[in-house]
Specification:
single chain, 128 residues, alpha+beta, three-stranded antiparallel beta sheet, 4 helices, elongated
């Protein structure tokens, strides 16, 4: 509000008011219905902090339609969880197989190079 009042004061050639920021708290969702919060100096965590974070998030959404959509999505998630599906094609399997073959070849080459250098440094390969 101070910024808007200062813009108005500048336009009307009045004196400006100093801006003072006051943090009300901090909220974070840290996954699987768990959160952390510090509100008005009081720290709490767990489900209550997670629920509070979601409540504040909903309040800050711009329109009622968006709030209702998000609330419905979250409610369904509470009851059914998120279903993640992935379709793997033959092409995906071929690509992954090629990548795995290259990794195995590099690992095998690194092992043989390492073994050869150990033998060379230990003196086992020197002629007598």
């Amino acid at each position: 509000m101070t910024v808007a009042k200062n813009i108005e004061a500048t336009i009307l050639d009045r004196s400006l008011k100093a801006f003072r920021y006051k943090m009300l708290g901090q909220l974070a969702s840290i996954g699987h219905r768990t959160g952390v919060a510090m509100v008005f100096g009081i720290k709490f965590s767990g489900f209550i902090a997670w629920w509070f974070w979601r409540s504040v998030y909903l309040m800050k959404l711009p329109r009622l339609a968006k709030k209702l959509r998000v609330m419905a999505s979250w409610t369904l998630d509470l009851f059914f969880g998120q279903e993640i599906e992935q379709m793997i094609t033959v092409r995906d399997i071929e690509e992954l197989s090629g990548q795995l073959a290259r990794v195995r070849a590099r690992t095998k080459q690194a092992r043989s190079t390492s073994a050869a250098s150990v033998l060379a440094n230990s003196g086992h390969n020197q002629p007598e």
